[in-house]
Write a structure and sequence with these properties.
Layout lengths: L1 H28 L25 H11 L3 E6 L2 E6 L2 H9 L14 H4 L8 H11 L5 H4 L3 H16 L9 H17 L12 H17 L7 H4 L3 H33 L15 H7 L1 E2 L2 E2 L2 H12 L2 H11 L9 H5 L2 H13 L6 E4 L4 E2 L5 E2 L4 E4 L1 H4 L41 H18 L20
Parallel strand pairs: 2-8
Antiparallel strand pairs: 1-2, 3-4, 5-8, 6-7
Organism: Acanthoscelides obtectus
Family: Belongs to the cytochrome P450 family.
Protein name: Cytochrome P450
Amino acid sequence: MAFFVALIATFFVGWLCYQWYTMWTIKRKLAWIPEVPGGLPVLGNILDVGSGKDVLNALTKYVTNAGEICTVQLLYQKYIITTDYDFLEFVLSSTKILDKGNDYRFFDDWLGSGLLLANASKWRRARKIITPSFHFSILEQFIDVFEKNGKILMHKLEDMCDQEINLQPYITSCTLDIICESAMGVSVHAQENIDSEYVFAVKDMCRILIARMFSPLGRNNWTYKLTSNYYKEKKHLNVLHSRTKSVVQARRKEALDQSKQDTGDEDIDRKKKLAFLDSLLLATIDGRPLTDDEIREEVDTFMFAAKAFKEQKTIFGGTIPKTVTHRDLQEMKYLECVIKETLRIYPSVPLISRVTDSDIVYKDGKTIPKGTTMILFTYGAHRNPKYFKDPGKFDPSRFESNEITKPFAYLPFSAGPRNCIDLQYLGLSRSSTVVKDGFSRYKQTHAALMKKTSRTAAIF
């Protein structure tokens, strides 16, 4: 027994020494970048971010006090934190810095090696397979899905017009319904069934994994097993994977049965909507069909204003039709500006993480060593007065003018070769969800909007 304990202790000390040696090697090569002060021995600045709830405030403080490019130590890991335009452009436009940061590993058990988490080589193959699923000819089929779920959302909110409410759970549930129906071809009825085991599993998994990133116990796989979140995660994974797997198998069988009865009619309007899952069932890798697990990983990944009112009146002539078309959505220029400005102030992806797989030479011969994790802090970049006049002001008209001339200053969904694949899907869904019921059902009113937001970050 004593020998076994000594062996484990030796292994742990050796692992710890390796981690610290790696960190100090990176730190020495990054001496050209200012370091965030105030770190504690061993812990570094990990206490600044708590369980993840204070990470945006902490990163804002770092780039404000230490500079737009700085380094910070969180436990045994050294990070580059940046809002610097040139650095953002350098990293995101690079074809050599495509691997996601090490912190994405916490999502492995849930999402596997799907498009979000895949290394560069697998990502290139997966992107090629999945891209056709986001063609407009397919996405347009789901406008009625967006509209239907938007109508449910508006009915929910209508009952609470005279009281203060937290919009986040309602918006989240609506989004989950839209994503599941688009991705899997089935609805989870998150808005109508808030107590659903599947809905709760999705939401709580996000909370658990974000908390794990900033937990000294959670960051190590061995010590993570000593926490209650480990057992909650395993329970949620069973629910999530079982649901997705059963849907994949059912749709595969349905597709097989349909192929046997196919009459040869190619008219897409007379066929069932081609969900993202259906596209994957038809896809191949090097001539072979995707396995159920490969499909499950991609499906699970897919799952992770007065002037605007006048615009609707102009487009629809005072009468909102029963169905909003893609052409209608394309005419809603100011609504698009409103959504863009919202995403500037509160981007869905406030952090983008990349890691180098070899030494990279930056400007003036400065080196970014192999294994360096870089946090591209888009939340902070969107508030940079260099690129956004009066950045704290909500002003959609800035997107009507030529104010934003730097393409890497506005990054709500990343940029460059590894940007978000479903930007067109997001554009259709966010507009059609709110336009018909959101602007036609209610009259113009003026009321204060209280912005009580969560400071927990998600990474991309």
